[in-house]
């Protein structure tokens, strides 16, 4: 059996909402069966797990790939993955295919990314996550369904080919979107500003579009959940998309005014750097992106105005400059807490943090944590049992306090999931 999918009428959540400006060859997918060893009964046994797999992949992509964190993207990704996984399982079971075109949907998603001016990093990261989760699922299938190594190998080969076709369709759509996108004549200047560049080169690029480079520039960044059209027409601010983040660059007053305008139609936070030398703008872009990430993790509180100044949170930006290295350091210092359950670890870390910050008694700490004072006493006894004399050594407590300030918000977030 070979299933060949050709592009059909889009779903209501798919391409029907957008007018195609360029024609391209019909999208298609080919799925060849993996051979003997995978019976219809085995596929039927696995089928209930398919939805859980697609949900797991979409959740990871929406959580870990910055460009796809907004709710609209989550819904589209979940739909694309669900349709792809269902099609694959149906094809392996020998069932007739359904009318919607999975290939066309993936090509449309790629086109959206291309038309938005995004790069390929997000698509590649999402593909990597999907590949990892699928391989983990294959290992589980082998054990739970009693499949032979030869059968698993053939399924893996078929699945790799299927995933490659999905990515290829998305890439083709991306290329189509790039062609259809209106090119901003100032885009070369934007690309020069967001990377390390010397002043002479920057001035040459700016002169080509009649833009005078100020002595200092300010950066603002956000991850819009809705279109923010018209920003490219602002005469005093250079705008563009960099790694999924909408970036605004210009004189401080102009950037702040534009940021306030964006907040009127954008329900997420906007981060703003301090004034920087023109050749240091790429640092401001990185700080704004890092601040947005820390806001999402609950480390930095979003201001009521929706605008967060990086200068007010330099300590947090320093502590989380390298998240993975920071995480490793925290876990080494706080190793005794790692044996606890996720919820218990979060509670003990929160109590330990407040106690090290204040050295207050249980009755004084309890209102801050919103728990009974006896609960605080029990937690403090547990903390003393875990950390012992380290709590009395000033050098140790400085390190513990720093690690807790970094880890406690992350653990609190994990416990809330």
Task: Describe the protein's architecture and organization.
Helix content is 59%, strand content 8%. It is α+β, with helices and mostly antiparallel strands. It has three domains: 3-180, Globin-like (Orthogonal Bundle); 187-319, no CATH class; 323-416, no CATH class. Strands 3, 4, 5, 6, 7 and 8 form a six-stranded mixed sheet that branches. A two-stranded antiparallel ribbon has the order 1-2. Strand 4 and strand 5 (245-250) form a beta hairpin.
Question: Which keywords apply here?
Answer:
Globin-like; 15 helices; two-stranded antiparallel sheet; 8% strand; six-stranded mixed β-sheet; 417 residues; 59% helix; 8 strands
Q: What global shape is seen?
A: flat
| Mean pLDDT across every amino acid position | 81
- For this structure, the quaternary state is single chain
CATH fold topology of the largest domain: Globin-like
Number of contiguous helices: 15
